[in-house]
Amino acid sequence: MGFFLLHRLRDMTITIVGLGPAGANHIDREALPQLMAGEATVVLRTLEHPAAAAIAAQRKVEACDDLYDTLTSFDDIYAAIADRVISATADGPVVYAVPGSAAVGERAVPMIISRAKDAGIPVEVIPGTSFLDLGYLAVGVDPIADGTQILDARDLPDPLPLHVPTFITQVDSPLRASDVSLALTRTIAPDTPVVVLDRLGSDDEVIDEIPVSELARYAAGPRTTVFVPATMSGILGLIVTNRILREECPWDRKQTHHTLLTHLVEEAYETADAIAQLPREAPGGDIDYGAYAEVEEELGDLLLQVVFHATLASEAGVFDIDEVAEQIRRKLVERHPHVFGDVSVEGVEEVLANWEEIKAVEKNRDSLMDDIPSGMTGIARAMKAQKRARSIGFDWEHAEEVIEVLRGEIDELIEARPDAAATAEELGDVLFTAVNLARHVGVDPEIALRGSVDTFIERFRLMESAFQARSISMRDASRQDLEAAWIEAKSALR
């Protein structure tokens, strides 16, 4: 009985073979005897490959194409392939053959190796030639000297880095080719040339340079890959461009952290103005593409300021933009233990309370009111102080309570006049309470005030036009005429 079991274990072997990029002439010589041995069960991942079809024409095989037809998730497909291969060992040796190299892009292979190891089944891998080997030659790229990245068209990263030569594989249908074209043209020009590599190693292979926009109309198939030459685009392109300008542009060379400060503040305000033009429910509701275009432009200007300051810091040997990003990434992880850790929260209020507690420890605060920047606008500073206080429960519960407090502050302001110092103090209390009310009703007071200022300016310009049309100077108009013109302007805008 023991001899029988030992004999059966010796029969239970798996050989994983790469069929190469095209026809049977690309199959490794060591793999051919394994594939053609009559006693082995040959499992092919797919028949949609020249070498696989040639083998199937000469001997009995078991293909896995049916799994692609019946299962919707690739993870489920790979798991099912692994199950099929392991199960087939019950009848003796198994050869599992895949297109290209068994070591490149074959997600079922590590599953098979892992499960076979657990079951005590010996596994041999004969990798074979990858289509990438032919691809490197076709486009003249050395993957080590030039640096390359291999991406899966079914799972492209976002953002999409294109700073090194890039092969996008699994462009297996016209729809997938269209998706790849769309993803690429988000950051590179539509006329940028890319190379389509299709059916490499076959007599009908395609190596064709086309504009990336044309890729959307290419009849891609199971063996289609797209090569994108290295290009400085997106966030990495911005960083490189800024560094070049710093070296070669006279204006950029003169800048310091302090000379750039005004630009940083201006761009922040312009970004705030652009965001204020979005619908209040954005990103929900109907999309205002025009307003979003303005936001996109202003965010770019603001991002340049961040990149520029990081470039200057890098020159000083202090930090670079990658360290800036990593620092805030770690901070986000540390301050969200309810997402990245094992802390449970009931809602937004607990999230904010945890946030302030973690910050207090990080910054070694003696008081919740520590490190509220004095350079902030009064409105922003009031908001920050009030939010800090709310994090430990010191706040009004309802907006109606704040309205009553606001009425009381206005009464105190009236009583304080004409004492200038007392009036200034009470007016500050009125404004502080107004900010508190805005917070309770869910309105950003800065945006609300900006909106009121914009409305005032628009109405005033209508007044100016009305007086100009009558050839009357506003300076000479009576208070009653000015008030009438104001009412008329308000009515016109409504």
Describe it for me?
The chain is α/β, with parallel strands linked by helices. The protein has helices spanning 2-11, 31-36, 50-58, 65-70, 74-88, 108-119, 131-139, 143-147, 174-184, 234-248, 250-254, 257-276, 289-315, 321-334, 337-340, 348-362, 378-390, 399-416, 420-440, 445-469, 479-493, and strands at 14-18, 41-44, 62-63, 94-98, 123-126, 149-152, 166-169, 193-198, 206-211, 224-228. It folds into 4 domains: 2-129, Cobalt-precorrin-4 Transmethylase, domain 1 (3-Layer(aba) Sandwich), CATH 3.40.1010.10; 133-231, Methyltransferase, Cobalt-precorrin-4 Transmethylase, Domain 2, CATH 3.30.950.10; 235-334, Helix Hairpins (Orthogonal Bundle), CATH 1.10.287.1080; 447-493. A 5-stranded parallel β-sheet has the order 3-2-4-1-5. Strands 6-7-10-8-9 form a 5-stranded mixed β-sheet, with helices on one face. The protein is elongated. It starts with a helix and ends with a helix.
